[in-house]
Amino acid sequence: MDSTWGCARFFHLLLPLCLILMINGVEFCYGGITSTYLRDKNLSLDMPLHSDVFSLPAGYNAPQQVHITQGDREGKGVIISWVTPDELGSSTVLYWAEDSKVKNIANSTVVTYKYYDYNSGYIHHCTIENLEYDTKYIYEIGDGSNARRFWFITPPKVGPDVPYTFGLIGDLGQTFDSNKTLTHYELNPAKGQTMLFVGDLSYADCYPNHDNTRWDTWGRFIERNAAYQPWIWTAGNHEIDFVPEIGEYEPFKPYKHRYFVPYRAANSTSPLWYSVKRASAYIIVMSSYSAYGKYTPQYKWLTNELPKVNRSETPWLIVLMHAPMYNSYAHHYMEGETMRVMYESWFVEYKVDVVFSGHVHAYERSERISNIRYNVVNGECTPMSDQSAPVYITIGDGGNQEGLVTEMTEPQPSYSAYREASFGHGTFEIKNKTHAYFSWHRNQDDYAVEADSLWFHNRYWKSSEQLAVASYR
User: Fold this and answer.
1) Is 332 assigned a catalytic role?
2) Contact at 8 Å (CB) between 390 and 319?
3) What sequence ranges are listed for the domain Calcineurin-like phosphoesterase (predicted)?
4) Which fold has domain 164-199+272-471?
5) What are 174-208's pLDDT values in tens digits?
6) Where are the domains of the chain?
């Protein structure tokens, strides 16, 4: 085919698409698409403390702030956590398979902490292991009149062709927009079976003296979802809580006491970086605000971790971190650059499918690009198309009180495929070992809109020729 005719035909076909996209509120720039949809620029307002989302459960010392996460390496375990505010209370969990009459008992460990003038309640963490795959379990905590009952569903057995859906939220906070985000996620027909949370939870550090009562209100706020499906936790900068001027010298103190993760099962030395397998996905959680340079514990752990990934068993490799490596917004611009220089070549070598981040209070999706050829000698510092590279998705748009980031670098860089300054949530639907579907849902008034999406073609299970055709399409 004549190349000139082919190019002309391509742009002839592209023109109607451009017009459609412009009509629907997007525009082409030097890079990809910048949405023209504009949100109110006012800061998000905190929900009043008397809001029903913060209400206390009935009964004296009733368990509250209930949440669960994966409790082992393979998905047969769960960590159930809750707080009793006034006294220790019951430290046991009663649980049973929905179709079974046999009830089991597990004991929790209990921790407390003091932060400035705040004393925590009794924080219970109960790890239950050796559950059956793909089974609905009922669990009960508390006793007598204050007993509370919840449920969860374990994932299917780890395997290459197992469909599974993850939800995605970051930088949530506890504002009216936070509530919209969580509500829209709950109402999404394709909502996840497990939440991947990319950091910045309660924003308690935004209140005077890092008011830790705001950790309690946030825990009650998310309970309606986090008590029923696991949230895979990532720590962000608002979890650091390092304030020497008020006598607080231990970083991440509230976070580490409240949100346990199965890091020891991944041979990690810290709960801030770890990994789990779930269905057909291998999920690696990294810490943007812990030391990650050469010879640090996080570096050594990841050096040993990536070679363990068996793409014949778990074809989808997902990385979670808080600060994005690629970002074209003015806020936090290039903040993740040192981590990118350190680890991007590893992500390309091991063909990470997608890196999800937060931190920037907006949404952005990258092309498959890398900048691994750059060094201080050759000066080749332009990101290039690279089908071995991950897609980088920033989803720090949960709804926190700091508001949206609307100022963007211009022109839109070539690595940026789509960006929009709106609140919202995402889903990552693994269909099988070859295909997955990502969608981002903008909070628009009283409903959610699928504003951006992308089909993922797994690089391990596709030939380079197939990938080239998929990329062209």
Assistant:
1) yes
2) yes
3) 165-363
4) Purple Acid Phosphatase; chain A, domain 2 (3.60.21)
5) 999 999 999 999 999 989 999 999 999 999 999 99
6) 164-199+272-471
